[in-house]
Structure formats: structure tokens, C-alpha cells
Amino acid sequence: MLVVRVRGRLCAIAAGSVVETLRPLPVDGGLRGDGELIVGTSIVRGAPVPVFDLGSLFGSGEAHPSTRFVVLRVEARQVAVAVEEVLGVREIDPRLLTTLPPLLQCAEARVVESIASLDGSFLVVLRAAAIVPEETWSAIAGGAPRSEEGHPS
Questions:
Q1: Res 68: pLDDT
Q2: How far is CA 18 from CA 21, 80, 100, 123, 137, in A?
Q3: Using CB atoms within 10 A of its CB, is residue 83 exposed (0-12), middle (13-18) or buried (19+)?
Q4: CATH class name, domain 2-143
Q5: Tens of pLDDT along 67-83?
Q6: pTM of the prediction?
């Protein structure tokens, strides 16, 4: 699992979904989806990639500046998620993972695969494929620029 820090929380993403981590790149804010999850679009290795604020999944906690992008493979697509810190790849014992209790579920619970404790801290394990809802992919496809201008048509 790749462990990252988002709004002060530890989160883990299956390493098999991670393409790369990199310093934040310039983001064109012209492409926005519902809510504040999508920040805009960035050019990663020559291709436009939607950038999402992973911290927005956790509501109105104190936002910290993103210092890294984590590029994820979501089916045949790529997406960059902005995180505060990449802490590294960790082996997490599957026996320590538990499903999200009903009392802790929220609108974004579809993204949470399980929860655990890591080094005495609460750890949220995320489903990479669910970070971007299908409605958002549809909105991006319908309004995404087809040119290099980076602005919606």
C-alpha cells in the first residue's frame, strides 16, 4: 500500500493502482466537476489528466497545501490526486483491516475500502477505482477540452 497524508489523516491506496508520485504540476482550473473534488487538469507526461483534491473526501477539515501528486490508474484512465505528503510504501497485514462501521459512513463511504491502525494512527484504505465517481467521469468526458487550450468548450 502507498501511504499518504491527507488533511492530517493517514490514507492508503493499493500500490498496484499507483503509476507514479511527483511534485505538483500547474493545474488549469477551467475543468471543474460537481463539488470541490475536481480541482482542474494538469499535463502529466504530455497528456491531460484530471486532478482531484483527495482531502475534499473528508469534508471541511483544515486543508494543508498539497506537496505531491499521486497518479493513479483507474481502469483505462489516469487521474492525479493531490496529497499533503507521501509517506511511502508499507506492507499492511490484511488481518488488521476492518470494514467501515455503519455509524462512520458518510456520502463518500463508497471510496473507503477498510480502516485500520498503523503505528498508532487511524488509517483509511481507499478504493482507487471509486475515488472518481462515474458521474464525474461522464461530466469530464462531456465537458473536457479536446484541444491544447485546457478550457472547456
A1: 94
A2: 8, 10, 23, 18, 19
A3: buried
A4: mainly beta
A5: 999 999 988 889 999 99
A6: 0.77
